[in-house]
Amino acid sequence: MTSVDRLKEIILDHTSHVFLITDPKQPDNPIIYANDGFYELTGYTKEEVIGQNCRFLQGPDTDRRAVAAMRRAIEQKDPFTVELLNYRKNGTPFWNLLHIDPVYVEDEGQYYFVGIQKDITDLKDKQSRADSSQTELDLLSTPIVPITASASVLPLIGQIDERRLEMITERLTTGLADTRVETLILDLTGFQMEDEGVADSIIRLGEILQLQGIELIVTGITPETAMKYRKLDQSLSNFRSFHSVKQAYESLQQ
């Protein structure tokens, strides 16, 4: 080995990136090289890794569809990037951002595969916590409040975009299906509309509730909002509307 080759090996071993090389011409496409970062990440030794297929990192919760897609990319010699749940030697799972590149060595007339890996477990955990927090916030900010035996109020509070209203619609259609609710009052007093798709979503909500035998009443629409979003004002003409929940309640009592 020349001094330059030795220098290359040292650089590969000590780079901050985790990567390995496999040889598809050998049976089962085994690992023929892995740098020190790979051993540190997975907990395996060089003796346990070299000559093995990468599948030993997979476990019970590894996405088989992602694995199948990766296998097809390797068969077709296509670059491929995937997020996989892998497992360390001690059984601890970690999220692996894996990028595979086919590299053709002209002198040898064959391909090798270089796999560059990154542990993104912390990032995935943060995303999961953020998603859970947003779901809880959505649910907490859309309470359905009974005001009579057959009528309930849904106050929309804060910023409302089409995504959130679609979530509310889904929750309502399942939550009210087996109840005695005949009237739902949608109170818009405290809401801020983020996009005009909300108007269409309100129409869909009213239509879905009507199919369930539930009347939608809208309250709290301000003149300023009606003027700013004419489409919303047109949408509300399809439903009974009142200035306040109190007025709607009094009308139901008559």
From TrEMBL:
Keyword vocabulary terms for this entry: Chromophore, Flavoprotein, FMN
Stretches assigned to the PAS domain: 11-77
SUPFAM superfamilies hit by this protein: PYP-like sensor domain (PAS domain), SpoIIaa-like
Domain of life: Bacteria
Domain PAC residues, every copy: 80-132
Chain ranges of the STAS domain: 141-252
Keyword Repeat (UniProt): no
InterPro entries assigned: PAC (IPR001610), PAS (IPR000014), PAS-assoc_C (IPR000700), PAS-like_dom_sf (IPR035965), STAS_dom (IPR002645), STAS_dom_sf (IPR036513)
Keyword Transmembrane: no
CDD domains per the UniProt record, alphabetical: PAS (cd00130), STAS_RsbR_RsbS_like (cd07041)
PROSITE patterns: PAC, PAS, STAS
The protein's name: PAS domain-containing protein
